[in-house]
C-alpha cells in the first residue's frame, strides 16, 4: 500500500513513504511553457495517478545546483516488478498534452534502505527536501553504512522530530551513489533542526556507541567517499498539485 513520500521525496521524498523502490527523471520545461505545463501536468496526475491501482508519481522543483529550475518527477512502487506494468493510457495522455513542452533526462532507479532511514512519529508536513548525494568508494561500504545505520538508531532513540530517508541508486548513477534526504517545513526549520536537534543526535550517538564515536565514525565516512563529487547537496521543494495524494485507496 502506497503512502505519500517522503521522496524521493525523495520523501525521496514526501515524508511517509512506505514503498521500497522508485524511478526518477529530470524534466526541463521549455521556456515560456511553464505555466501551461504545470496546469496540464497537474490535471494528468489527478486523472491517472490519484486512485488505487494507478501508478503513484511525486514531483519536486529543484532549487539548487546545476539543475535548478527543473523538475524531479518520481514514480514510486512496492517492487521493481511493478515497473513492468506500463500505464499506456496515462502515458499517451501525458505525451499528447505536455510531451512537446519538456524534455526528460537522467532516468535512475532507487531502492529505500529501511534500516538506515528514520521517520519521526507524527512528523509534520515538510515539503522542503535537503538531499545529500554520496558517492562511495568501491571499498568504502562498511564505514559508510556503519555510520548511516548508527545515525538512524540514535535518531530513533532520541525521538528527533524530523525525517531522514536513505536511498541507494540501483541503475543510472555514475558510481556507487546513495541519497540521504532530510525533510523540513522550510529553510528556517532546517536551521533550527541543525542548531537544536543535531547536538542531541551527537550526544545520543556517543552515549550508545562510545565516547567520540560520532566524530570517529563520521571521519571514516568522509574517507569512504570518492574524492571528486563524493558529497553534494541539492534542495528541492515538493509540488503537491503535481503529485499523487497521500491516500490512494
Outline:
The protein is an alpha+beta fold and 249 residues long. It is built from five helices and eight strands; from the N terminus they run βαββαββαββααβ. The protein has an eight-stranded antiparallel barrel with strand order 1-3-2-8-5-7-6-4.
Overview of this protein structure:
This protein has one domain: Alpha-Beta Plaits (2-Layer Sandwich), CATH 3.30.70. With 249 residues, the chain is an alpha+beta fold. Helices cover 31% and strands 28% of the residues. β6 (163-171) and β7 form a beta hairpin. The protein contains five helices and eight strands; from the N terminus they run βαββαββαββααβ. α1 packs antiparallel against α2.
Topology (SSEs and partners):
Layout: E1 21-29, H1 34-48, E2 56-62, E3 71-77, H2 88-98, E4 102-112, E5 128-136, H3 141-158, E6 163-171, E7 176-184, H4 187-209, H5 213-223, E8 231-238
Antiparallel strand pairs: 1-3, 1-4, 2-3, 2-8, 4-6, 5-7, 5-8, 6-7
Helix pairs in contact: 1-2, 3-4, 3-5
CATH class descriptor name: Alpha Beta
Instruction: Give the total of beta strands.
Output: 8
Please report the distance between the alpha carbons of the first and last residues: 8 Å
Describe the largest sheet: 8 strands, antiparallel, barrel
CATH fold-level name: Alpha-Beta Plaits
Number of domains: 1
Low-confidence stretches: 1-18
Helix content class: 25-40%
Radius of gyration: 18 Å
Query: What CATH architecture do you see?
Result: 2-Layer Sandwich
Structure annotation, total helices: 5
User: Going across the major beta sheet, what is the strand order?
Assistant: 1-3-2-8-5-7-6-4
Mean pLDDT: 91
Which secondary-structure class do the elements indicate?
alpha+beta
The percentage of residues in β strands lies in: 25-35%
Summarize the helix and strand pattern as letters. EHEEHEEHEEHHE
Choose one word for the global shape: globular
Amino acid at each position: 500500500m502506497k503512502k505519500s513520500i517522503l521522496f524521493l521525496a525523495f520523501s525521496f521524498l514526501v515524508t511517509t513513504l512506505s514503498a521500497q523502490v522508485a524511478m526518477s527523471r529530470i524534466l526541463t520545461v521549455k521556456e515560456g511553457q511553464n505555466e501551461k505545463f504545470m496546469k496540464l501536468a497537474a490535471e494528468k496526475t489527478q486523472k491517472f495517478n490519484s486512485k488505487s491501482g494507478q501508478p503513484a508519481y511525486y514531483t519536486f522543483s529543484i532549487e539548487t545546483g546545476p539543475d535548478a529550475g527543473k523538475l524531479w518527477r518520481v514514480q514510486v512502487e512496492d517492487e521493481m516488478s511493478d515497473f513492468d506494468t506500463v500505464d499506456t493510457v496515462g502515458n499517451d495522455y501525458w505525451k499528447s498534452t505536455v510531451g512537446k513542452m519538456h524534455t526528460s533526462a537522467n532516468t535512475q532507479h532507487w531502492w529505500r534502505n529501511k534500516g538506515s532511514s528514520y521517520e519521526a512519529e507524527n512528523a509534520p508536513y515538510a515539503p522542503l527536501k535537503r538531499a545529500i548525494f554520496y558517492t562511495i568508494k568501491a571499498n568504502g561500504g562498511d564505514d559508510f553504512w556503519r555510520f548511516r545505520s548508527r545515525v538512524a538508531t540514535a535518531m530513533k532513540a532520541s525521538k528527533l522530530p524530523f525525517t531522514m530517508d536513505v536511498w541507494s541508486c540501483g541503475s543510472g548513477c555514475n558510481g556507487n551513489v546513495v541519497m540521504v534526504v532530510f525533510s523540513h517545513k522550510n529553510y528556517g526549520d532546517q536551521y533550527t533542526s541543525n542548531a537544536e536537534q543535531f547536538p542531541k543526535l551527537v550526544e545520543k550517538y556517543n552515549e550508545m556507541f562510545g565516547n567520540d564515536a560520532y566524530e570517529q565514525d563520521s571521519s571514516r565516512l568522509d574517507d569512504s567517499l570518492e574524492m571528486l563529487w563524493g558529497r553534494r547537496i541539492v534542495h528541492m521543494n515538493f509540488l503537491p498539485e503535481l503529485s499523487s495524494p497521500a491516500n490512494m485507496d
